[in-house]
Amino acid sequence: MKAIPYGRQQIEQDDINAVITTLKGDFLTQGPKVKEFENKFANYVGAKYAVAVCNATAGLHLSVLALGLKPGERVITTPITFAASANCVKYAGGEVWFADIDPNTYLLSLENTKNLIESKPKGFFKGIIPVDFAGLPVNLEEFRNLANEHDLWIIEDAAHSPGGYFTDTKGEHQNCGNGNYADLAVFSFHPVKHIACGEGGMVTTNSEVLYRKLLLLRTHGITKENMEEDQGGWYYEMQDLGFNYRLTDIQSALGITQLAKNRAGVKRRNEIADTYKKAFEGKIKYQIPPKGMLNAHHLFVIEVEDRKGLYDFLKTFNIFAQIHYIPVHTLPYYRQIEYGDADLTHAENYYKHCISLPMYPSLTDEEQSFVIQKIKEYYG
């Protein structure tokens, strides 16, 4: 069997043609493809505004800055995520505090977040960054109610979940990143994600004020909007200390064709997930979504005994599973800064057992059957 990774991009001829057309055009960056991608992405998730950035980490950084996070201010996130979900707070000089996960969904626990917030004086925390881990959406309606009670903002880390949704109390589907409950949402276009741009990200919002701040901060804090009639076309103003976090037209052209395939991609990912569930039901634990959720399935994670043994065994058959993630609070940097006195038992227990299996639309039935066969073989 050829190598079977845990995730991979799927680049087809239409993707290649779109990039070639852009390479032959007038703009490689700061051109019309970026805006086209932003508009199509905003329409796809149902948000008013979208801002393309060079990667999701940059999107998270701009988001905390746009929301006005100041040095020393505190933000809550989950320990089961990639470090960028927490690092963005540190970039702005803030403090990161962790609340434990739900042991069945692997998402940031609403109850534990509420307990952490209420254990401190009002105003102690400024915001929450919940993560749609593995593609399973957080119920942002519940988090919004909690945030409103305590005057907190919300950034939805939706890097894993384009195309996913949860169902609100009115019975309506709420797409990840639609801006109805979170102030901002951030998506990733890394090759192993749903939409591959090589690198890239998108920030969505329904707030025009935040949208304008993101645009300014994305490009060095520079604008031409205040140019007077008697000033030349070269005139610009730097109004804030911004960054060069732009996405290119080349990447945007690829993103547009990739986005057009995402509905089919999410459908296929769910077919793969259903096959895993049928194979492991009652034998091996996996992520359990609440009712009314569409999991976009960036990952399919199981919990097993002797995780390292299974990882090494699969590798001998060219099956390259992965571990998502080492809990952020256990990383040396975060141990040094004393993130806060929290009980993160569920996160730590999850990490002892978790392993991510191959999950991508081009995974064949034969390849998936081989993966399942080898896991069953290992556990007898």
Structure description:
The structure is a single chain. This protein is α/β, with parallel strands linked by helices and 380 residues long. It is 37% helix and 15% strand. It is built from 13 helices and 16 strands. Helix 3 packs across helix 4. The chain is globular. The two termini are 21 Å apart.
What topology does this entry show?
Blueprint: E1 4-5, H1 13-23, H2 32-45, E2 49-53, H3 56-66, E3 74-77, H4 84-91, E4 95-98, H5 110-118, E5 125-129, H6 140-149, E6 153-157, E7 165-167, E8 173-175, E9 184-188, E10 201-205, H7 208-218, E11 222-223, E12 237-238, H8 249-259, H9 262-280, E13 285-286, E14 300-303, H10 307-315, E15 319-320, H11 332-336, H12 345-353, E16 354-357, H13 365-378
Rg measurement, Å: 21 Å
Order of helices and strands: EHHEHEHEHEHEEEEEHEEHHEEHEHHEH
> What would you call the shape?
globular
Mean pLDDT: 96
Q: How much strand?
A: 15-25%
Characteristics:
seven-stranded mixed beta sheet, three-stranded antiparallel beta sheet, alpha/beta, 380 residues
